[in-house]
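Notes taken during the Thursday session

The instructor put the following on the board and asked us to keep it in front of us for the whole hour. The protein is SDR family NAD(P)-dependent oxidoreductase. We were told not to look anything up and to reason only from what is written here. First, the residues (281 in total):
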Amino acid sequence: MNDSDADRRRSRAAALPLRGDRLRGRTALVAGGGGGPDPDFLGTGAATALLFAAQGATVGVMDVSAERAEWTCALIGRQGGRALPLVADVTSEEEVERAARSLVAEAGRLDVLVNNTGITGGAVDAPDTREWDRVVEVNLRGTMLTCRAALPHLRASGGGSIVNVSSAAAVRAFGSGAYGASKAGVIALTADLAYAWGRFGIRVNCLVPGHLHTPIGDRGGDEARETRRKANLLQVEGCAWDIAWAALFLAGDESGWITAATLPVDAGSTAATVLGMLPLM
Ligand SMILES: NC(=O)c1ccc[n+]([C@@H]2O[C@H](COP(=O)([O-])OP(=O)(O)OC[C@H]3O[C@@H](n4cnc5c(N)ncnc54)[C@H](O)[C@@H]3O)[C@@H](O)[C@H]2O)c1
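Then, after some discussion, the predicted structure tokens were revealed:
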């Protein structure tokens, strides 16, 4: 990373004041909220956890990696927020339920769940289907399991908000195999849960991020970043904070009459056709 990259990211993050009280008194569980090692270059889970804590929430940072969960919690702690690391693999019903229970035991309630966990891969023409199965298991079944674990607690709190994280690969051909298929399932699951749980005051919505610059997706170097930047209608590269702010909107009271929605966070890239974009690039 060179200085101008860091400056650009800092200026985006700093452009909006993180601190506020939009989630004051609330408890949020962020699945896949681990991060590290660079506090100036966060993934979407860590940025969401940090923003929610800065907005007054107690945040359960759940991750399969204890190190990554603790890293995010330490960062939140340094900024004066309250966070609890929770180690769980989203594909384990038992681990996820235990994590949700221990957060509620510590914080007294649960109001928000963000399903940020996601892994890529699962080509149809791979030598066997094990990777396909794992990607679907983490992205789709894992999202279902965290919802399943959280729903009784959200209901006990008198309602709440679930924010699922899908991908542009769910709605546009991308050659992503099981990734896109599982993320399309997340959109369908979102509507289905919104249907079933709306009468209990539980809203369920879904973010559909476009190509972002995050540590896990940081491939292809400067040239790839420049292409990503130009391939959307704003000609601005997306980063983790763009997802965090959208998640905050869907988590908080400002979106109180929005449920079963899929919100693209992609600077318009999925609204345009490839041929339409070419003259702009
Ligand atoms: N980065 C992008 O360009 C992009 C684009 C579209 C959608 N998304 C989606 O956004 C989300 C976050 O992406 P990111 O690249 O910012 O990642 P991130 O930095 O937020 O990290 C995701 C976290 O999930 C954790 N995790 C992985 N498998 C797990 C499991 N089985 N159980 C529990 N935790 C697990 C990882 O340890 C990691 O800490 C994902 O759902 C991804 O599919 C990302």
